[in-house]
Amino acid sequence: MEEANKIMPPFNRDKMPQFTRMPNPAFTWEKDEWTAIDSKKEDPQRMYKIMIGGVCPRPIAFISTRDENGVDNISPYSGFTVNIVSEPFLEQVNASAVDAPFGFSEWELCRLIKAPTVWADAPRVKESAFSMECELYKEIEIIHPTTKKHTATTYMALVKHVHVRNDMWNERGNIELTRLRPVSRSGDISFTRTGDGLRVLRPQSAKEEGNVRTFMQKLKEEGGVDVSEHGRTEVHGTGGHMTGWEHTEGGPCEQRPC
């Protein structure tokens, strides 16, 4: 890690996110070429690299817990806190990833400060400008369909309380991205800073429906389009489904995914 730091430019503390126009203002409802990768045939290590390279940036957070013996840890039980990670304490985040022995509290190792909570027994991370107190709702074990082995566990939670540091709010009452400065994960050992942002208006059905229907008619002429009784659209010859436009009684068209 020291050798890598020597060849890298110093951390730029003055860089601030900037907002720009959309990256592709000439976007149209047209087809693109894709590479389909069969996860069952692809090498597992190669598939993993593809996934972490494409599913990014991935938000990261500290999960602080307190076990039945009263040991505080950063990694859930019935009540836990989720603490969003920002740039100023990234080193502490990385330190918590050490392969510490079972039952070892990472708080002392990371030298983070415990802050009080309203509902959860577990403390929150004071350095985090945005924290959520959560109640464990459901624990789902993911079983591989072929090997039948338990490969992962998904936790669903109810957010009971949210803590936002007051200097994060802007004049519109929103959390200011340039102040929160969250950090995310990308491929290999890389973390990602929040870069420039885009201000993009959501499409409105009243304005876009004509364009979508024109595109659907073109697809029908090329490969065929089936419209179900529920308004969903299945496109043949494109390798998947597209979004269909559905009229709701007494209201405007609503865009719903198939």
Automatic annotation (TrEMBL):
<protein>
    <submittedName>
        <fullName>Uncharacterized protein</fullName>
    </submittedName>
</protein>
<feature type="compositionally biased region" description="Basic and acidic residues">
    <location>
        <begin position="222"/>
        <end position="235"/>
    </location>
</feature>
<comment type="similarity">
    <text>Belongs to the flavoredoxin family.</text>
</comment>
<keyword id="KW-0285">Flavoprotein</keyword>
<dbReference type="InterPro" id="IPR012349">
    <property type="entry name" value="Split_barrel_FMN-bd"/>
</dbReference>
<keyword id="KW-0288">FMN</keyword>
<feature type="region of interest" description="Disordered">
    <location>
        <begin position="222"/>
        <end position="258"/>
    </location>
</feature>
